[in-house]
Every structure is written in C-alpha cells, then in structure tokens.
C-alpha cells in the first residue's frame, strides 16, 4: 500500500485499496444525518474481478492508496485468448487475457494506443480512447425506399463486434464507434 486516502478526497474514478484489493470509485455520496456522525455511501468496482460493492464508510475514515501505474502502450496482436501490448518507451511487451479485457477486446485494432493499468507490477486492465475507427466487414445493403426515420441495421466490424448502424452504411465504410457504450457515432470514410 503506497499511502492513505481520506473519505473527504473521494471522487469518481479515484482508485482505492480495501482489504488488499484495488477498487475504482463508481459513485459516492456524503451523508450528514440529523443525529449521529456523517458518513460516506460509496459504490466501488474491483479492478481485479469487476465485482461491485457498496460499502458505507465513516466520514474521515482512511482507505489505502493502491500501488497502481498506468503505462501508454500499443496493441500488437492476439494469440489464442491473450492480447499482446508493447510499451511505447522501452518496447517491453505484456499481455492481458480475454476475461480481463472484457468488452474492451471488441475495440482493439492493431497499432491502437491504449493505457494499460498495472497493479503491483501485473497488468490488470486497459483504458481505451473514447472512440475508435473501425471498418465494416459485413453489412446488408440498404433497401431503396426504406426511409423510416432512425431505422437501423446490424453491421459486423473488423474486430468481429456487431453494432447497429443507419441504413446508408455499406461494407467497406469506416465508422467511429464509442468505446464506452459500443454505439455507432458517425461514418468517417466511405468504401473506395
């Protein structure tokens, strides 16, 4: 444990350590009841397992500061269920398993730069850019006259991820996809 953090310093996204496990604060609320002492109601997500807890801490209570480091790395390739990344400064390579990556694997394209999270020297997660550009590899053609406002159709992207897109999207188009919710944002380039 690298230090301590007081509950008054809590903010969304802050990384804390409780019982030797690193967590990220998803939400918190300072509560001052009419009687009794103030407390902090929190929602935290484990950086190792993804489980969500909702502990209540006394105001002024201290929690651990985890030994966490973020490194800028470049995604290289996938081999089996392991995704390989390279440190852009010293060219060291590390890998993350498919289960650890979770939904992030749907947006990994070769040579994309990401931020890899390390806990006690071990890679435990990845932070993607807010959006990525991916090519459509499979998509049904739009039907002429099918002009219902807001109509969508499924499209498969180069990573194998399936997303709903407007009817005018065709195979070969490059789309901007939001990595936070996995939704289509806009068409970046048309095929050709």
UniProtKB/TrEMBL annotation:
The keyword Protein biosynthesis applies. Residues 132-187 form the Elongation factor P C-terminal domain. Residues 70-124 form the Translation elongation factor P/YeiP central domain. It comes from the Bacteria. InterPro entries: Elong-fact-P_C, NA-bd_OB-fold, Rib_uL2_dom2, Transl_elong_fac_P/YeiP, Transl_elong_KOW-like, Transl_elong_P/YeiP_cen, Transl_elong_P/YeiP_CS, Transl_elongation_fac_P. Involved in peptide bond synthesis. Stimulates efficient translation and peptide-bond synthesis on native or reconstituted 70S ribosomes in vitro. Probably functions indirectly by altering the affinity of the ribosome for aminoacyl-tRNA, thus increasing their reactivity as acceptors for peptidyl transferase. Belongs to the elongation factor P family. This is Elongation factor P.
